[in-house]
Write a structure and sequence with these properties.
mainly alpha; 51% helix; membrane; CaH_exchang
């Protein structure tokens, strides 16, 4: 886990899901009020996004075998 590179090179899936969640939240709360139905909709959107990240696998970059070793 420590040898894993952490950069800001987001895949299209992460970028699209972030963009869509911002649009959904802005659309639901654009008038500054909320109710129980809007809250339930936001919780369901959160569950859908978290479930999609759970089952999504990123494709391996070209030319890499996607294995991290701890050899110095």
């Amino acid at each position: 886990m420590i040898d894993c590179p952490m950069d800001l090179n987001f895949q299209p899936f992460e970028t699209t899901s972030l963009f869509m969640s911002v649009i959904i939240v802005a659309f639901l709360l654009h008038n500054g009020t909320s109710n129980y139905f809007k809250g339930i909709m936001l919780i369901l959107c959160y569950l859908i996004v978290s479930a999609s990240f759970y089952v999504h696998t990123d494709p391996a970059p070209i030319g890499e075998n996607n294995q991290f070793t701890a050899d110095p």
